[in-house]
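chain below, 190 aa
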Amino acid sequence: MNTSSYLNIKIMKTTEPKQNRIKNNNMYRLTFLFTVLISLTATASINKGCDILNNSLNSELHKFGKTIFVNAEDSASIIVDVNDVEVIEIEEEVVINFDTKTYLPQDFNALKGMYNLDWSLIEVIEHEEEVELGFDTSKYLPKNFNALKGKHDLDWSAIELIEIEEDVDLGFDTQKYLPQGFNAHQGEHI
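prediction:
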């Protein structure tokens, strides 16, 4: 074999694997590039979806905060009526991990004295406020109208009151749930 043919063979052998390595390298680079591109696209779409959700939540939170916490200096803000606010009470069962009776005095009765209140000693004070409607009501009433006419003309002794007693069926025997000797009318003035 002469030297020139040896060089040609040697050159062919070395250039072919080098081109394969370059093709493989380019393929790896292209695969890596597409993987990065797909990952960035997916991340961008997820972030966009989250941003839309966060923006709508933030806007609702902003509206709610603006409605509830009205700045006194902001005269253009909306005043919310207390009756329009819905209050939701969450009733949770309270679990006490000890016996409360051990901390109470002997023969403790939480209802003791509950019915000993003398209502005749309590003075009820009614605060009457004059209601201003903003217009003259006499224009809408008949002539010589008197709202108190006949107030004391009613003879209550002439009116006969009739009580209709109806038996109510609860669907169970209530005597099982009452103490022995229970009398619902005990202490009534007959």
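Residues 98 and 160 are 58 Å apart (CA to CA). Residues 1-69 form one domain.
thats it, cya
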